[in-house]
Structure formats: structure tokens, C-alpha cells
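Summary for the steering committee. One of the milestones for this cycle was to obtain a three-dimensional model of the protein with uridine-5'-diphosphate bound, which we needed before selecting residues for the alanine scan. The sequence and ligand used are listed below.
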Amino acid sequence: MKHYDYLIVGAGLFGAVFARQAMDAGKTCLVVEKSDHIAGNIYTEEVEGIPVHRYGAHIFHTSNKAVWDYVSRYVTFNHYINTPIANYKGELYNMPFNMHTFYQMWGVTTPDAARAKIEEQRREITGEPKNLEEQAISLVGRDIYEKLVKGYTEKQWGRSCTELPAFIIKRLPVRYTFDNNYFNDPYQGIPEEGYTALVERLLAGAEVQLGVDYLDRREELNALADRVVYTGCIDAYYDYCYGPLEYRSLRFETETLDTDNYQGVAVVNYNEREIPYTRVIEHKHFVFGQQEKTVITREYPATWELGMRPYYPVNNEKNQALYEQYRALADREDQVVFGGRLGHYKYYDMDKVVEAALAMAEEMLG
Ligand code: FAD
Ligand code: UDP
């Protein structure tokens, strides 16, 4: 039987970047993937000629030029800039929080007037914000917190904003300029052919086996390679010996509609609690599609239970402490290394995944 230098568990972005680097260094790779397709969460498939993001909207953005150059070697990125709209009970607001939002919320027309309004509303928070609610109020004041943050966040995470870590909201820019770009990074775009093409090209030359759950056959698979790069859930790897880590799950409802333009923008957030979905994605707008039809996806947050797809790690103190216990076990392994969103139990964006996979490859391959 063929022997490989690396067995890579998971054909997501992390596994694919590592595999590419290993192959470019002359190593052989066997990639096993438990689902029936490659690319993990960034999987896209064509429907009506439109690349549809099967597991939620994915916008590539980074401040790291080396990462941008790296992914651009494999696919061409378009000039898409994410400018989502927030819908609160039929009122439309621009996101992220910027002068357009402040004007729409309060009628203020200058940065000084917006600052004064927020200053007045943030006084209720004294000291370092202890949770997401305090962090949000201290960034944008109570009015914006109530309309655009509270309902959206609580339905997304299934927890009260007072029980969530502050860092989640720090991802969002707050700007005193009229600038609707959701991200601050200098590089941003969507692969014209979809993300699956990126992963396909990264994996070119590797032996990829779909529908194989490593955890069901680990001994037999370990014997096929010198080392293992594992990008599945770290707690599953250790048979949940300290108990399961918590995740947040999602449910997607996708429809093809007989109209060429349903909502005029790729992403509309639905911010009130009463609407069960958090956002509606209109996929064609990611690639400036001109098709006659359109494909939309409603994203519903879902309580995660063992066996469901683990979309988001819930990085609160309890889970972080549990993860540290698993990490201590992982640190003692010599044949296996852990990577990616599930292996590191980290809320990584794609660029951070590429960065981490390149760093691991550099360390292991020299
Ligand atoms: P994954 O994509 O989860 O890949 C892991 C793979 O391992 C999976 O294919 C899984 O099936 C496989 N696997 C697991 N266990 C086993 C096993 N036992 N045996 C075999 N195979 C196994 N990032 C951005 O930069 N921009 C965005 O706009 C953005 N939007 C997002 C929106 C949503 C809704 C979500 C959930 C994430 C978003 N992300 C975004 C983050 C992005 O999806 C991740 O950074 C990236 O996909 C992580 O890649 P990965 O390889 O670490 O994990
Ligand atoms: N958020 C919000 N209102 C919005 C959009 C985002 O309150 O309209 C908050 C929410 O707490 C969310 C966080 O900002 O969890 C990060 O949002 P982002 O869109 O970056 O998250 P992702 O795309 O990863 O779901």
C-alpha cells in the first residue's frame, strides 16, 4: 500500500493550504474528508450560473499582503467590497457603524454631532467593558445597541449580550466617516469562480478521499502516513474526555427566485429579535451577476448539539478553559498536529486560516 508523508484530515482551507505547501516541498499527501465535497465551510457551487455560498456568505479580506498574494496565485479575486444593510423593523441602516448609520439613526450630519451623541449615551458604562453589551454601548451608544446589536447578536449566539465576550463586537469598525466598507483591510474580494476552485487548485496533486471519517478509522489511516495534520474538532479527537466544547450552529434555506434583483445588495441583516433569521444573502451580487434569475439564502442561527455542523466556536471563559485542557493533550502528541477553526477552537477568518497554515507548514517543512 502507498505510504504518504502527510495524512491531512479535512479538505477545508487549512488542510488545503498545508497540503499545497507540503506538495510544493516535495512531500506526498493523503487528504481525507468526511463530507461529500472539498472546501469545508467555504464550499461554493453553481446554481443558475451563480456561485452559491452553501455555508454562509464568505468575503475574503486581509491586511496581510503575503496572504493576499498567495491566494491570488490560484484564483482571480474581483473588486467586491462588502457593504451590508441592516433592516430593523423595516427601517434600513448602513453597516458597519459609520456616518451614514448615525445620520439614519439620529439625523446628525457631522462627525462632531455624532461623537457628542455617542459620548452622551456611553456615559452609563464606567470602566473596562465586561461583556458584549457594555462593549457595544461604549462603542456606539444605547440607541444603536438596542436596534442594531442586541436582537441580532442574541439570536445569532442564543445567549444574552451580557453573557457574551466583548471581543465579538470589536470585529466591527466604528467610523466617523461616510464609508460603508464593512472591513478595514486593504485587500478584499471574492474569487470570480467561487471558493471551491481555490481549494481544488490548492489540492491539485494530492490524493483526496471524500466520505471518510478519520475518527472511525484512525489506526488504519495513521499507518498510511508519517505525520497527521488534523483539522476536525479537537474535543472529538479526544473522544470528548473532558466533555464537549460548545459551538453555535446555523441552518440555511436557499431559494431560486424568478427575478433578477431581489434586494439590491449581497447581504441584508435582519436585526430584530422577532425575525428568526439573521441575514439574507443574494449570491449574484458578490460577483456582479447579470443572470435573469437570482438565488437567495436565509441564515437561521441554531442551537448546536453533538452531531450537528459546528459553525462557530463559543469562545467564552468556560469553553476556553476546556479547550486549554484539550490543548495540553495536543501539545504532547508527536505524530499529530492540530490546525484550523475546529482544531484550534478559534473564531478564525479565512486569512487567519491561511496565515496559520503557512506558518505551520514553514515550521514543519522548513
Ligand atoms: P473547515 O472549513 O471547517 O474545514 C474542516 C474540514 O474538516 C471540514 O470539511 C470537515 O468536514 C472536515 N472534517 C472534520 N472532522 C473530520 C473527520 N473526523 N474526518 C474527516 N474530515 C473531517 N471568514 C472570512 O474570512 N470571511 C467571511 O466572510 C467569513 N464568513 C463566514 C460565515 C460563516 C457563516 C462561517 C461559519 C464562517 C465564516 N468565515 C469567514 C470563516 C471561514 O469559514 C473559516 O475561517 C474557514 O472556512 C475555516 O477553514 P478550516 O479549514 O479551518 O475549517
Ligand atoms: N453584529 C451586530 N449587528 C449586525 C452585524 C453584526 O450586532 O448587524 C455583531 C454581532 O454581535 C456579531 C458580530 O457583530 O456576532 C460579528 O459580526 P460579523 O458579521 O463580523 O460576524 P460573522 O460574519 O462571522 O457572523
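Key point for the committee: The chain has a mean pLDDT of 97.
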